[in-house]
Amino acid sequence: RPAPPFTLARLDAPGRQFGLDDMRGQVWLLNVWASWCVACRAEHPVLLRAASEGRIAIVGLDYKDEDSAAREWLARLGDPYTATVVDPGGKLGIDYGVYGVPETFLIDAQGVIRYKHVGPV
After folding, report:
1. What pTM did the predictor assign?
2. Beta strands 17-19 and 7-9: pairing type?
3. What is the model's pLDDT at position 107?
């Protein structure tokens, strides 16, 4: 199915927006996470390793979280994301069918969700 479109504030620069159109033409992962998520901490080293290999872009969706806590979490544990957008009310998560974190979506160059992984990668 087509990935739901979005344009949200960036975690690292709240005055700047980032969205689905920024990733057109690329295969990428959308990783839904939160600083309060214990399982997200468990998967984080895998994301850092994947990012360091540079094979695929990873976009973070900070889900129902406090921006300051999320920024601190990434500063402490490392930031594997090409960009992180914030979804404080969970609306985009609903659009993607998220029912828990972490969840990761593989999105193709045309913006179609090809795979959804529930739980830590």
Report:
1. 0.96
2. antiparallel
3. 98
